[in-house]
Give the backbone structure.
Amino acid sequence: MARTGKKYAAGFSEVDRNKFYAPLEALELAKKVAFAKFDETVDVAVKLGVDPRHADQMVRGSVVLPNGTGKTVRVLAFAKGEKAKEAETAGADVVGDDELVAKVEGGWLEFDKVVSTPDMMPKVGKLGRLLGPRGLMPTPKIGTVTNDVAGIVKQLKSGMVEFRVEKAGIVHCIIGKKSFDSAKLYANLKALMDTIVKVKPAASKGVYVRSVAISTTMGPGVKLDTAQLLAEL
């Protein structure tokens, strides 16, 4: 949906495009200028000093946001036997093995996150072309391929988010909803930023975190004072 109209223009006029706002001030302003009737998602965009075309500069990871995302997450777990029971007990919405792989292969995609036990990956692997482009393919790098299937299911249901740097060197990630208290959004933002800083590639030279901006689904972007944000982690 295009961000046009009087309400967007009014919100845009309240944001000083040349100012770098203190983190809490930025979050409060982003909430204030959000005009949609629905509970807009709050997104953060982090420009990093990396070139993701080089494998040794790829930035990817996951973090459990302390205050969740405000979204209901449908988790699918590929597991069998005792591990399937553990996934179900932990709250996985759909659990299965070979038949479930075939169902997904047939085009069924009514889920938001996917986890798998290692023994299922030889069969789950053939779903790569289907799940990969959608960011749903389980991988050990972010903990979604594991024997602790119950643990990862609980994390995903409680607010775990994944992030990955895009071609332009930017990480986009949600940190909650407009209805969240600003302090809770800030706690989520700091948890995300702390993780991004910790996974800095050794090959990244110069300034790593170059800029950070906050926006809601329909609202304008608000630039943050990056130095202050990093100092408060």
The mean pLDDT is 94.
